[in-house]
Design goal:
The protein has 307 residues and is of the alpha+beta class. The protein has helices at 39-47, 54-57, 85-93, 103-119, 125-134, 157-172, and strands spanning 5-8, 25-31, 64-66, 74-75, 142-150, 179-187, 190-198, 202-204, 208-209, 217-224, 231-238, 242-245, 247-248, 256-262, 270-277, 285-292, 301-303. Helix 3 (85-93) packs parallel to helix 6. The radius of gyration is 20 Å and the shape is globular. The chain starts with a strand and ends with a strand. The model is unreliable at 1-18 (pLDDT under 50).
Length: 307
């Protein structure tokens, strides 16, 4: 399984009084090499207090953050119609997104835009991952593209949209992702537009409840979004350091899958990963990464891990 790190390309803020000049897009990407840490390495790392050189990173550290919502109730990548001016412009520039605009990606774009507008930076990896889980995103590789600037308070939303529409149209026309969500947010004079895209690594065949009280198992059925595989497997975390393989259901074969994952009693949140393996390969590619809340109440507040 991959451990993901993220690098942010510089964001340029440019705006004139009463009228925004064209800002520039910035992207956040993920990349890491394959490595399986040993149990001893994980335990040693877990016992060390986190040390952040915030001056070197050029970031302000936030210890807790509350998401605003609204949130999807289930994991199913529900396709939604374009309703906002930004969504309509996205679909007009890239018609393929008409069937790929989803509630989970919209939620994620909205939470990231709100955070960046208020904090003037993108969320860190842990917070972004929490946002993805809470917004019921199953996509493993998410691309975040931001357009930010300073828009005077007396500029109406319609004017703001008119000023940035051309840049959105130009950028969206070059995208080739399967799924997307877009959201805009203003905080004072800080204005942010976020486009979230991903490839459909796998498609669930039926909705999976995000939070169910006294959840004992999680059933996942679906098929790979693209390509095939020799075999498909799934694992669920159990406690802080353990995981268990999910049980295969029925006599399905790739690209279809059907799993039942056992939830450990007492776990407030359970993370499930599904991976596809080519013939003769030990390492697979993640196609789904999701979380459920077995207590029946999904958390809305992220807190930094304490040492």
């Amino acid at each position: 399984m991959k451990q993901m790190n993220r690098w942010l390309v510089a964001v340029v803020l440019v705006v004139g009084s009463g009228c925004a000049t064209t800002p520039k897009w910035a992207s956040a990407t993920t990349m890491a090499e394959e490595k399986f840490p040993s149990r001893t390495e994980i335990q040693t790392l877990a016992q060390k207090p986190p040390k952040l050189d915030t001056a070197k990173l050029g970031r302000d550290v936030v210890d807790a953050w509350e998401l605003a919502g609204p949130f999807p109730d289930s994991l199913d990548a529900t396709v939604v119609p374009a309703t906002s001016d930004w969504e309509k412009a996205l679909v007009a520039a890239g018609p393929r997104f008409a069937n790929g605009l989803t509630e989970d990606h919209r939620c994620l774009a909205r939470e990231i835009a709100r955070y960046e507008a208020k904090r003037k930076q993108l969320p860190g990896h842990s917070l972004q991952r929490f946002m993805e889980f809470r917004c019921a995103t199953t996509a493993r590789h998410v691309s975040i593209n931001t357009l930010s600037g300073t828009v005077p308070k007396d500029v109406k939303d319609a004017e703001w949209f008119a000023q940035w529409k051309a840049e959105l149209t130009k950028y969206a026309a070059r995208q080739s992702a399967d799924l997307a969500g877009i959201a805009a947010f203003r905080d004072g004079e800080n204005a942010v537009l976020v486009l979230v895209t991903s490839e459909a690594g796998a498609i669930l065949g039926k909705p999976v409840p995000l939070a169910t009280k006294d959840m004992k198992t999680v059933e996942l059925r679906g098929r790979l979004g693209r390509g095939g595989a020799h075999r498909i497997s799934a694992r669920i975390n159990q406690g802080a350091l353990d995981s268990a393989e999910c049980r295969t259901l029925d006599a399905v074969s790739p690209p279809e899958f059907a799993f039942e994952c056992a939830v450990r009693a007492g776990d407030a949140r359970a993370v499930i990963e599904i991976a596809a393996f080519d013939e003769g390969r030990i390492l697979g590619r993640k196609v789904i990464d999701l979380a459920v809340w077995p207590t029946g109440q999904a958390a809305n507040v992220w807190s930094r891990a304490k040492g």
